[in-house]
Design a protein that fits this description.
Layout lengths: L13 H29 L4 H24 L7 H29 L4 H25 L36
Helix pairs in contact: 1-2, 1-4, 2-3, 3-4
């Protein structure tokens, strides 16, 4: 589970960003799932095709809500972020479609159960990490190793030109 350290996403903690992204995902997954069930049960569309169409429908609102609210990235240029989002969404749609087919075909699960399992796994392993670190990244802020640019915690004696620190005052 993400920690509670501050991020560059509107001053939210990592947990706050994750929570907002999760709420966004729940809403857009409901659209996705509703499309899947509606197409399959009411229109007679094959569940594999309906799974893919559902992911596209869900993603249409997901980008906007994530950009403006979950990742607080309204100040980032929309077109480059949208281009990255399309790449991530193409992968997610493939994972959803293939995962639902595999679980339904070989594990003999009902397709709605397969969809719920796959949606949770894809969100945690693919969508959230890639949205957080690729789609809505802030230049430099997320690419630095942790601790980079922070003041050194080493004693002054280790820095060039510093005067030695007496041994009794070192921790």
């Amino acid at each position: 589970m993400p920690g509670a350290r501050p991020t560059t996403h509107g001053g939210l903690t990592e947990l706050g960003t994750f929570s907002r992204s999760l709420l966004t995902s729940l809403l857009t997954t409901a659209l996705d799932f509703g499309t899947l069930i509606g197409l399959t049960e009411l229109a007679g569309v094959n569940y594999v095709v309906a799974t893919w169409i559902g992911t596209v429908v869900g993603s249409l609102s997901n980008f906007t809500i994530n950009r403006l609210w979950a990742f607080y990235a309204h100040d980032l240029p929309a077109l480059p972020a949208l281009s990255r989002f399309v790449l991530v969404q193409a992968g997610a749609s493939g994972l959803h479609t293939g995962g639902v087919w595999l679980l339904t075909r070989f594990a003999r699960l009902p397709y709605p159960v397969s969809k719920l399992i796959v949606a949770a796994v894809v969100y945690l392993a693919w969508n959230y990490p890639l949205n957080r670190h690729f789609v809505f990244r802030r230049r430099g802020a997320l690419s630095r190793p942790e601790g980079a640019g922070e003041p050194s915690s080493s004693p002054p004696r280790d820095r060039p030109g510093a005067r030695p620190v007496p041994p009794h005052s070192r921790s």
